[in-house]
C-alpha cells in the first residue's frame, strides 16, 4: 500500500546525468541510474524503516541510457529503490520485471536485509526461467539510503607505506574481535570493535603495516546456506559495490567505517579491502532478481551465445561484464569512492583473471587493467590480484603488469612442501626466498610483485597445516565434498589437538620456520589473522559458511611462542633493510649467493640432491651490511659461515627467537629452523 499524500515534484533545471546514484546536492537529491535497454524507470520512495512504499515517481529524463531526475527536499536518510520497465525476453537476454524492487548499484548505505522468498525471482519458481512472476518483491528487499558524505577526517591522509616495508595481515571484520575479551562485548564483530585499542595494539606489536579485510561490501547470505542454518561468513557474494555490509555497523551508518579507518591510520596501519567485482550474488539465470539483473541483465552480465544463459567463469553462476563501458565505469567509480571518500589504501581483487577477460580470453592489457593503470587516483594505491579464476586460461600467476602485485600460491605450496620435508624441494624454496623471479622478474616489475603467504582465508590455517592430514569439513554440510585436498600438510604425529609435549613442540618449531620463510623472503609478506598465535579452525579448510567459533579467532588459546617469533621477525625485516625493490642481480638490487652448509657455493650436483634440506642465502645490497638467511628443514645440523664478523639475529629453534650475538666458524643449527645473521662493520 502506497502513501496517498502529494508526491514530490522533479526540478528539471537541477537534474544531472553525469553523477550516478543518489547524490545529495544543496537542498535536494539527484537520482541517476544506467539502463540501456529499459523503457522506463520508476524511483520508489519508502518510509524511514523501509517498510512502506510512499511514492513511485518515473524518472523524467534519459540521456545515453542514464535515467535521472532531481527531487528538491529529499535529504539524507531517505530510503529508496527502483522498478525498471522493459522487455521480458530471456532468450534475448532481457529480464525486466517492474514487480521486482531493485537496489541502486550505487547505494551508499542499506536499510534492511534480504528475506528469502520466491517473490525475489523474476520468473515463477517451479516453472522454467521463461515464465514471469508478478508478485511484489519489495517486502523482502533491502533498500538504499540517501547519505551525506561529510565527515571530519581530522587531517587524515594516505599513509602510502612503501611496498618493501609492507607487512600484510589478512583478517575478517567480525572474526577478529568476536572472542577478544579486551573489546567491549557490545562492540565485538563490528567496525567499532575493530577500531578498539586492543586489536590495534596487537597489530602494532606484530609489525603489521597493512590490514587487509575480507569483503566488507554488502553481500547476501545465500538462500541455500540460510536454509541449512549456515551463513556466508566470508562475504564473496556481493550485493552492492558501494555500501558496507550492514551487520558490521552498530548504528547502520557508514561513518563507523570511516571512524575505524581513521583510527588505523593514526596508528600507522593501512586498510585495504578484498573486493569482488567479478560476479554478484544474483547467481545464474535461475537466480534471484535483486539489482543488476532487473536493471539491465544484458549490459551488466556476460551472457552465453544463446543470450538466455549466464556465462560463468567464477563458479558462482554469473560474471560481471566489465568490458561494457558503463559497467567498467561503475567499478571504477566504486574503487575511487572507497579511496577518495572512505580513505581506504588499496584493494585485493578476488578472481582478478575474470576482470581481464576479453573476447579472446584473459588479456593482461584488457580494458579494466588499463583503466586502473592510467587512473590518477587508483594507480597510486595498493593493488593486489588474486591471479586466477576457474575459466580456461584463468591461472595467471606472474601474468599481470605493474603496479599490480599478486598472491603467489606457488610460494605457499613450495614452502609447505619444503618444511614437510618433501624430497627435492630445495631449489623451489630458494626461488621463493628470492621473490619468485621466474614468475615476476619481467616487464619492469619490482621484486615486491609477489605477495608471499603460507595460509590465507581459503584453506588450512598455518596451525592446521601442522596439525591435520585430512580436511575436516563436516560442519559445512556437504559430506566432505567441499574444500580442496591438496593441502601439503602434516599432523606431526596426531590428527588434530594433542597433549603430547613432543608433538606440540614440533608443531611450534615448524610453524615458526614457515612464518620465518614468509617474513624473510623477498617480496611482500602476508600473514593470515591468527597464524601469529596458532589459531585453528579444527581442520576445516573451507570455513566460508562458519560464522561461529570455528572461524572466529580464539584469543584465549594464543601461543605466545609464535607471537614472540612474529614480532621478532617483523622487527628484523624492518631494521635490517632485508626487503628490496629490485631483484638480485639487477642494477641497484642485492647480489645473492647460495651457499652449501659446507661453506662454499651450491653446485649443480648440490641442487640435484633430493635429500638436501639445508642451504643459506647471502644477500649483499648495494649499500649497507650483508644478510645471511639459513633454512634447515632437516634434523640438527651445522653450517660453515663465510668469513666476516657475523652477528646472529634470529634463530627460530630457540625459545627466544630474537638474539644479537657474535658467531663465526661452524654454526650449529636446530632441526626445522631458520636463522638470520647480519655482517657487522
Walkthrough of the structure:
A hairpin with a 6-residue loop joins strand 3 and strand 4. The chain contains 15 helices and 29 strands. Among the domains are: 12-146, Immunoglobulin-like (Sandwich), CATH 2.60.40.10; 591-679, Immunoglobulin-like (Sandwich). It has an eight-stranded parallel barrel. The chain is α/β, with parallel strands linked by helices.
Task: Give a short synopsis of this structure.
With 681 residues, this protein is α/β, with parallel strands linked by helices.
- Strand order, largest beta sheet: 12-13-14-15-18-19-20-21
What proportion strand? 15-25%
Q: Which CATH-level-2 architecture of the domain at 12-146?
A: Sandwich
Mean pLDDT reading: 95
Distance between the termini: 82 Å
Find the CATH superfamily of the domain at 12-146: Immunoglobulins
Classified by CATH, the class of the domain at 12-146 is Mainly Beta
In the CATH scheme, what's the topology name of the domain at 12-146? Answer: Immunoglobulin-like
Percent of residues in helices: 10-25%
Give the helix tally. Answer: 15
User: Strand count, sense and closure of the main sheet?
Assistant: 8 strands, parallel, barrel
What's the shape? elongated
Structural class by SSE content: alpha/beta
Family: Belongs to the glycosyl hydrolase 13 family.
Protein name: Glycogen debranching enzyme GlgX
Pfam families: Alpha-amylase, CBM_48
Biased composition (Basic and acidic residues): 473-488
What labels describe this entry?
alpha/beta; elongated; 8-stranded parallel beta barrel; about 675 residues; Immunoglobulin-like; 29 strands; 6-stranded antiparallel β-sheet; single chain
Amino acid at each position: 500500500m502506497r502513501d496517498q499524500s502529494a508526491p514530490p515534484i522533479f526540478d528539471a533545471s537541477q537534474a544531472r546525468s553525469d553523477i550516478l546514484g543518489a547524490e545529495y546536492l544543496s537542498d535536494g537529491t539527484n537520482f541517476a541510474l544506467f539502463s540501456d535497454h529499459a523503457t522506463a524507470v520508476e524511483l520508489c520512495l519508502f518510509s524511514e524503516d523501509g517498510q512502506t512504499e510512499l511514492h513511485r515517481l518515473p524518472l523524467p529524463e534519459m540521456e545515453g541510457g542514464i535515467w535521472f531526475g532531481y527531487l528538491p527536499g529529499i535529504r539524507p536518510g531517505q530510503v529508496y529503490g527502483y522498478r525498471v520497465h522493459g522487455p521480458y525476453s530471456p532468450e534475448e537476454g532481457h529480464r525486466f520485471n517492474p514487480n521486482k524492487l531493485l537496489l541502486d548499484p550505487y547505494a551508499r548505505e542499506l536499510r534492511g536485509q534480504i528475506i528469502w522468498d520466491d517473490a525475489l525471482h523474476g520468473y515463477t519458481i517451479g516453472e522454467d526461467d521463461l515464465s514471469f512472476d508478478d508478485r511484489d518483491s519489495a517486502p523482502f528487499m533491502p533498500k538504499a539510503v540517501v547519505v551525506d558524505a561529510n565527515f571530519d577526517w581530522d587531517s587524515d591522509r594516505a599513509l602510502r607505506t612503501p611496498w618493501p616495508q609492507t607487512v600484510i595481515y589478512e583478517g575478517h571484520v567480525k572474526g577478529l574481535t568476536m572472542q577478544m575479551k579486551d573489546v567491549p562485548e557490545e562492540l565485538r564483530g563490528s567496525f567499532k570493535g575493530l577500531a578498539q585499542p586492543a586489536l590495534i595494539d596487537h597489530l602494532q606489536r606484530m609489525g603489521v603495516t597493512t590490514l587487509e579485510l575480507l569483503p566488507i561490501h554488502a553481500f547476501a547470505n545465500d538462500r541455500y546456506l540460510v536454509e541449512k542454518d549456515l551463513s556466508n561468513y566470508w562475504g564473496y557474494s556481493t550485493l552492492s559495490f558501494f555500501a558496507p555490509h550492514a551487520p558490521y555497523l552498530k548504528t547502520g551508518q557508514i561513518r563507523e567505517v570511516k571512524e575505524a579507518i581513521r583510527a588505523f591510520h593514526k596508528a600507522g596501519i593501512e586498510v585495504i579491502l578484498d573486493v569482488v567485482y567479478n560476479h554478484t550474488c544474483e547467481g545464474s539465470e535461475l537466480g534471484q532478481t535483486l539489482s543488476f539483473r532487473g536493471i539491465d541483465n544484458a549490459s551488466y552480465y556476460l551472457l552465453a551465445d544463446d543470450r538466455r544463459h549466464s556465462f560463468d567463469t567464477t563458479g558462482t553462476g554469473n560474471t560481471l561484464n566489465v568490458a561494457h563501458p558503463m559497467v567498467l565505469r561503475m567499478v571504477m567509480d566504486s574503487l575511487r569512492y572507497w579511496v577518495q571518500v572512505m580513505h581506504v589504501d588499496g584493494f585485493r581483487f578476488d578472481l582478478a583473471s575474470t576482470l581481464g577477460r576479453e573476447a579472446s580470453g584473459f588479456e593482461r592489457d584488457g580494458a579494466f587493467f588499463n583503466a586502473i593503470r592510467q587512473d590518477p587516483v587508483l594507480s597510486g594505491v595498493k593493488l593486489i590480484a588474486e591471479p586466477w579464476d576457474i575459466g580456461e586460461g584463468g591461472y595467471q600467476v606472474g601474468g599481470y603488469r605493474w603496479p599490480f602485485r599478486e598472491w603467489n600460491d606457488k610460494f605457499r605450496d613450495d614452502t609447505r612442501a619444503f618444511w614437510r620435508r618433501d624430497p627435492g624441494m630445495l631449489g623451489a624454496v630458494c626461488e621463493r626466498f628470492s621473490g619468485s623471479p621466474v614468475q615476476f622478474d619481467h616487464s619492469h616489475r619490482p621484486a615486491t610483485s609477489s605477495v608471499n603467504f603460507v595460509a590465507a582465508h581459503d584453506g588450512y590455517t598455518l596451525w592446521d597445516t601442522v596439525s591435520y592430514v585430512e580436511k575436516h569439513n563436516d560442519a559445512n554440510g556437504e559430506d566432505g565434498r567441499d574444500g580442496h585436498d591438496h593441502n601439503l600438510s602434516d599432523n606431526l604425529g596426531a590428527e588434530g589437538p594433542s597433549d603430547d609435549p613432543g608433538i606440540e613442540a614440533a608443531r611450534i618449531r615448524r610453524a615458526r620456520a614457515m612464518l620465518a620463510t614468509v617474513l624473510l623472503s623477498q617480496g611482500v609478506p602476508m600473514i593470515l589473522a591468527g597464524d601469529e598465535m596458532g589459531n585453528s579452525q579444527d581442520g576445516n579448510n573451507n570455513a566460508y559458511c562458519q560464522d561461529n567459533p570455528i572461524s572466529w579467532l580464539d584469543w584465549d588459546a594464543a601461543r605466545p611462542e609464535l607471537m614472540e617469533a612474529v614480532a621478532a621477525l617483523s622487527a628484523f625485516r624492518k631494521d635490517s633493510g632485508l626487503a628490496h625493490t629490485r631483484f638480485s642481480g639487477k642494477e641497484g638490487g642485492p647480489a645473492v649467493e647460495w651457499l652449501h652448509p659446507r661453506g662454499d657455493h651450491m653446485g649443480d650436483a648440490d641442487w640435484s640432491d633430493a635429500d638436501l634440506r639445508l642451504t643459506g642465502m647471502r644477500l649483499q645490497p648495494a649499500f649497507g651490511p650483508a644478510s645471511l638467511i639459513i633454512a634447515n628443514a632437516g634434523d640438527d645440523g651445522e653450517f660453515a659461515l663465510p668469513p666476516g664478523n657475523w652477528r646472529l639475529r634470529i634463530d627460530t629453534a630457540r625459545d627466544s627467537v630474537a638474539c644479537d650475538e657474535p658467531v663465526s666458524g661452524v654454526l650449529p643449527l636446530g632441526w626445522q629452523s631458520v636463522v638470520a645473521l647480519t655482517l657487522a662493520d
